[in-house]
Structure formats: C-alpha cells, structure tokens
C-alpha cells in the first residue's frame, strides 16, 4: 500500500521572480506606502540579473537535487526546533474528545486499557506499513500523499537544547520487542511494559497493570516532586534544568525510559470545572496549571493521551514530527476502535504473574526544586493568560457554501479576514497551513489569506450603505477566487514562505551576509502571523485547537461539517488588542452577513 511513496514527486523550487512578485503582492496593502516603496527597491535589487537572489536560487536548486525535500530541515528548525517558547499553548495542538461519563475509577481505567489496546493495534499497522495510504481530498483531489509522518507518531522525542532542540527518532521494528508506555498519575510517572516475553499485553493485563499503578500513585509517602512541570517551561530553561537533572544516574535512567516510550497516558484528577467545550480545550492545552493536572504531563513526547477522571479526555501532541491531520487520523482510528470493538475485559485471560509496573524515581537537588518552582510559576501565568473560545456556528456548514459553488475553505478564510477587519480595522499577515504531502517528505506551506482581493471585499462590506449588494457579491467572488488560487499554488509547492525561508537559510549556511530582503522590517512583519489559522476537519465528534503564535495574535482552528462549523479561537489576555469572545461574536455576524 505504500508503493507510491518512492514514486511521489519531489517538492519543486518555485521560480525566483514568481516568489518575489508574489511577496510584494502579499505585502503591498498591509504596510504603509513609504515602507512598501523601500521594500520594492530591496526586492528588485535582490532579484536583479546576476544578483544575490539568482545565486541563492541556483544553490537551492542544487540542494533540491540531492535531498528528498529541499526545505524539510530548514523548515523543521525554523518552525519548531529553534523556537524557544514553551510547548503547551504556544506549540502543541490538542484534540478534544467528546466528554466521557465515568462513574468510577475502574470505569476510567477500563477506558484507558481499551484505548491503549487501540494504540498498540494502530502502532502495529504503522510498523507493518499496513495503514491505507491517504489521498488528497478537496482541491486537486485524488493524488496519494506522503505517509512518512505516521512513522514518527510513536517513535519520536523532542530533546530540549540550549539553542535548538533535536527531534530524536527511534528505529521502529515489526518484531514485538520490549516496549513500554509511560503512565502519568498524580504527577508520578510509571513504566507500563506492553510487550512482555514477546507477547503484547491484552486488555485485561493492561487494566490489571493500570489498577496497580493507580494504587501505587495513591501512596502519599512515596510521592515524588512533579518533574513533568519542567517540560512545560520554555525550551532553553528546560534544557538547562535537564542538564542538571542528568548529573544523577537515577534521573538519567528515568529520563531514558520516558524518552524511549511509545507514548504517555495521563490519568488526570477531576479538574473541578464545568466541562464545556471551551473549558475542555483549555484543560487539554495546559492541564489547568500546577494545582490541577499541569504537572501530569511530559510535553516532549509526541502523543499524550489524557484521560480525566471527570471525563475530560483528548490528546496533546508535540507538533514537530507530524501535522494535525495525522493526529486526527490516529485519534479517529482509536475512537472507532473503541466503539467498534467492545471492551474485551471480561473474556480475556490475564497473564498470571505480570511484573509490577515501576515508578520512575527522581533525585531532586535544591537546584531542581528551584527550577520546578520557576516552571510552575510560568505555567500558571500561561494558564491565566490564555483566552479561549470554542464555538459551534450552527447557521450553516460547508454544504451551503458548496451549493454556492464556492470552496468552503476559501469562504471560511474570507470570513476570518472579514472578522479581523471588523474587529481591528485592518488586515494583517495571515497563516493558513496548506499540506504539501503530495511531495516526498512534504509537511506544510503557508496560504497568505489576507489577499488584496479579500481587503477589497471586507472594505466594501464595512462600507455597506455606499455599495450595492451586487457589487459586494462580485467582490466576494473575486476574494474567494484569489484565495482558491493561492491554495492551489500552495498545495502544488509554489507558495512563497518555504521558498523565502530556503533562500534565507541557504545564505546563512553559505556564511554570506544576510541579504537585505531578510533584514528589512517588511520581512519581519510578513512572518509575524497575527492571525494563525488551520482547517482540521474530523469525521468523529471531536475538535482540534491550539494557541496563538504571537503575543498579539489569534489562533483560529476550524472544523467544517455539513451543517455547522466548529471554530476554536485563542488569544492572550495580556494583549490589549485581542479578545477571543469578541472575535467569535463578530465572526458569527460576518458569516451571517456573507450568507445574506
Ligand atoms: N464548488 C463546490 N464544491 C467545492 C468547490 C466549489 N467551487 N470547491 C471545493 N469544493 C468542495 C470540494 O470538492 C470538497 O468536497 P468534499 O468535502 O466532498 O471533499 C470540499 O468542498 C472542501 O474543499 P475546500 O473547501 O476547497 O478545501 P480543501 O478540502 O481542498 O482544503 C486546505 C483546503 C488548504 C485546507 C487543504 O488543501 C489542506 O492543505 N489541508 C491540510 C491543512 C493542515 O495541514 N492542517 C493541519 C495543520 S497542523
């Protein structure tokens, strides 16, 4: 089923002039006229025949000849590994499951055992290369997509570094080697071996082991400090704390077990909050801080399945190894698995003498205690700062938009632009993730949705009395067409963000002076994404969300369904410019006006 992989085309390097023209077009209406004039001159100099641009382009083309994907390493470093911000809220997206109704601890553990069984099934599909290949849907549907990201779901670890993190990958194998997951419970970490004597534990075994873990976690005298909090800190701080931690061999062994595990299962305490969609999203994004389940996490691991005693469940995902779409596929498999294969707890026989799960030990020096206090404080600030609003817009869904012969994604993007304009009176550089998995090792590029055509439309809508409905309709069509065209450029590898990044990074690699194009303020503005958006559609009842990527920005994740659209809007309370509630309320109005 993976036979397409080697045959997938390589990501092309777009023509230089096309990217430079597009860059100017994307920024012309978002910056003051004087600044634009200056930028235009800089870009023209860069792109002149025999100039720096041509030279770097040639080098980039050479790079593309001997790499499966010329942008992958540059992109991974820029997007994730060199980003120093804390992973929760700032980087790690989450999937929020429907609220579960657990009536007892054993109910919760039964759910956990069932889910872990599903994880093991899914992992064996990945290892056996037996997952059905994904195919592109929507625009330019039907092409097979690169499956590489799936191999990293249970085998990666993001190691913090002083200047840059490292994405460590373990080799995965088909043989049932000793394998373990880490169970977090009451801020303690336990090793749960899931393959013992070459045999995978069945659900009853898993349940037995989880019960033992629960009992061990209850012993108050044995509780150790909430070391997981350190992983919620910014990356440089966590790297520093880790370098102190590993001086002790006990800590080294514990870290090693976590770094090599398949995934985490976090058995959370009840949060004591009403479990609305918004509150579940918040709890999933940051655990509710130190007083709640903030320490019951290990953010460096790509997959953390959270199972709250109060029914608040979902997945927290370290984003560097794969995209949200892979997270959705895995989560949907698990939910379907749990629905389709009733719990086998009653029938299965448990192994008679399973070795007891082990608690991971930590030696906590006063230095580590100080790091922990600082990490807890910072997480608390993040918790207080996150302003989230999850809203199900029920006015209509993608069916209505399709009936107008418009692309639902383009329409929603234009609606987000309209909303931003209505809230702030201007448009800003916007990021929409576009999958480039049609290419080998493809991840994403950016659709810059704040097009000049979108600006013309939103201005007309704001000026309602002076412009006729027919004119507005015309402008809406033009905006949607521009957005759809950009989408097609992006998914065929012809967008500008990866290309500009490549030109910037190859200059750095060749130790050349930074081209003026990249020290120009317009470039800094162009990559400060005040509006960071992403379509993450699901077929099961769940939703994805994430935080803003800049202090004065919004994160806007949407999940279009047939007759409704789920919007998850986030921002930071300490920014005087933003308000998630206002944004969502305005969005409702804008969607209705656009329908009209
Ligand atoms: N008239 C009628 N129907 C139309 C239409 C039109 N003019 N244009 C599109 N449609 C239909 C499509 O055929 C599709 O139908 P389906 O639901 O039966 O599949 C549906 O509308 C959706 O298409 P569209 O809204 O255009 O979006 P898309 O599915 O092509 O998605 C992107 C666009 C950019 C979101 C997508 O290409 C992508 O890259 N997704 C990945 C994003 C990502 O990585 N997110 C996670 C980041 S962590």
UniProtKB/TrEMBL annotation:
Keywords from the named record: Acyltransferase, Neurotransmitter biosynthesis, Transferase
GO function term, MF aspect, one: choline O-acetyltransferase activity
GO cellular component, one term: synapse
Catalytic activity, EC: 2.3.1.6
Catalytic residues as annotated in Swiss-Prot or TrEMBL: 319 (proton acceptor)
Catalytic activity: choline + acetyl-CoA = acetylcholine + CoA
PROSITE patterns, A to Z: ACYLTRANSF_C_1, ACYLTRANSF_C_2
Span of domain Choline/carnitine acyltransferase: 11-588
GO biological process: acetylcholine biosynthetic process; neuromuscular synaptic transmission
Enzyme superclass (EC): transferase
Keyword Transmembrane helix among record annotations: no
InterPro entries from the UniProt entry: Carn_acyl_trans, CAT-like_dom_sf, Cho/carn_acyl_trans, Cho/carn_acyl_trans_2
Protein function: Catalyzes the reversible synthesis of acetylcholine (ACh) from acetyl CoA and choline at cholinergic synapses.
Family from the record: Belongs to the carnitine/choline acetyltransferase family.
UniProt name for this protein: Choline O-acetyltransferase
Species, as recorded: Cyprinus carpio carpio
Lineage of origin: Eukaryota, Metazoa, Chordata, Craniata, Vertebrata
């Amino acid at each position: 089923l993976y036979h397409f992989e080697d045959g997938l085309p390589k990501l092309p390097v777009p023509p230089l002039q096309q990217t430079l023209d597009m860059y100017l077009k994307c920024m012309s209406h978002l910056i003051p006229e004087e600044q634009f004039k200056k930028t235009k001159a800089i870009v023209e100099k860069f792109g002149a025949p025999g100039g720096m641009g041509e030279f770097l382009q040639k080098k980039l083309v050479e790079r593309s000849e001997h790499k499966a994907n010329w942008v992958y390493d540059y992109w991974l470093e820029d997007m994730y590994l060199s980003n120093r911000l804390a992973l929760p809220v700032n980087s790690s997206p989450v999937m929020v499951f429907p609220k579960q109704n657990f009536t007892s601890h054993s109910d919760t553990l039964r759910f956990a055992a069932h889910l872990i069984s599903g994880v093991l099934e899914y992992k064996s599909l990945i290892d056996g290369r037996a997952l059905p290949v994904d195919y592109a849907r929507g625009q330019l549907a039907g092409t097979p997509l690169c499956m590489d990201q799936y191999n990293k779901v249970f085998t990666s670890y993001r190691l913090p570094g002083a200047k840059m993190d490292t994405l460590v990958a373990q080799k995965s194998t088909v043989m049932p080697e000793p394998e373990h997951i880490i169970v977090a419970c009451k801020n303690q970490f336990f090793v749960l071996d899931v393959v013992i004597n070459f045999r995978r534990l069945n659900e009853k075994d898993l349940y037995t082991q989880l019960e033992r873990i629960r009992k061990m976690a209850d012993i108050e005298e044995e509780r150790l400090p909430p070391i997981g909090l350190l992983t919620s800190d910014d990356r440089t701080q966590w790297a520093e704390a880790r370098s102190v931690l590993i001086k002790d061999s006990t800590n080294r062994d514990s870290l090693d077990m976590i770094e090599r595990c398949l995934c985490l299962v976090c058995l959370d305490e009840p949060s004591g909050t009403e479990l609305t969609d918004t509150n579940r999203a918040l709890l999933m994004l940051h655990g509710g801080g130190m007083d709640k389940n903030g320490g019951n996490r290990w953010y460096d691991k790509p997959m953390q399945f959270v199972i709250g005693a109060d029914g608040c469940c979902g997945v927290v995902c370290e984003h560097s190894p794969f995209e949200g779409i892979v997270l959705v596929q895995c989560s949907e498999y698990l939910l379907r698995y749990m629905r389709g294969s009733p719990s086998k707890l009653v029938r299965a026989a448990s192994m008679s003498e399973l070795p007891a799960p082990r608690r991971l030990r930590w030696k906590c020096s006063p230095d580590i205690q100080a790091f922990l206090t600082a990490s807890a404080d910072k997480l608390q600030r993040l918790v207080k700062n996150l302003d989230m609003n999850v809203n199900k817009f029920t006015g209509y869904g993608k069916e209505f938009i399709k009936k107008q012969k418009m692309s639902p994604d383009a329409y929603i993007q234009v609606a987000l632009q309209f909303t931003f304009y209505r809230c702030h009176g201007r448009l800003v550089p916007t990021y929409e993730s576009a999958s480039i998995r049609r290419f080998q090792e493809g991840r994403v590029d950016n659709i810059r949705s704040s097009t000049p055509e979108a600006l013309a439309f939103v201005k007309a809508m704001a000026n309602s009395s002076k412009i006729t409905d027919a004119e507005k309709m015309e402008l809406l069509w033009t905006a949607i067409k521009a957005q759809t065209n950009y989408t097609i450029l992006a998914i065929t590898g012809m967008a500008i963000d990866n290309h500009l990044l490549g030109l910037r990074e190859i200059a750095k690699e060749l130790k050349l002076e930074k081209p003026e194009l990249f020290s120009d303020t317009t470039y800094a503005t162009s990559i400060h994404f005040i509006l960071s958006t992403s379509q993450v559609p699901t077929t099961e009842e769940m939703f994805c969300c994430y935080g803003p990527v800049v202090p004065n920005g919004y994160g806007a994740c949407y999940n279009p369904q047939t007759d409704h659209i789920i919007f998850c809007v986030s921002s930071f309370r300490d920014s005087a410019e933003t308000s998630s509630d206002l944004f969502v309320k305005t969005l409702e109005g804008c969607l209705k006006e656009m329908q009209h």
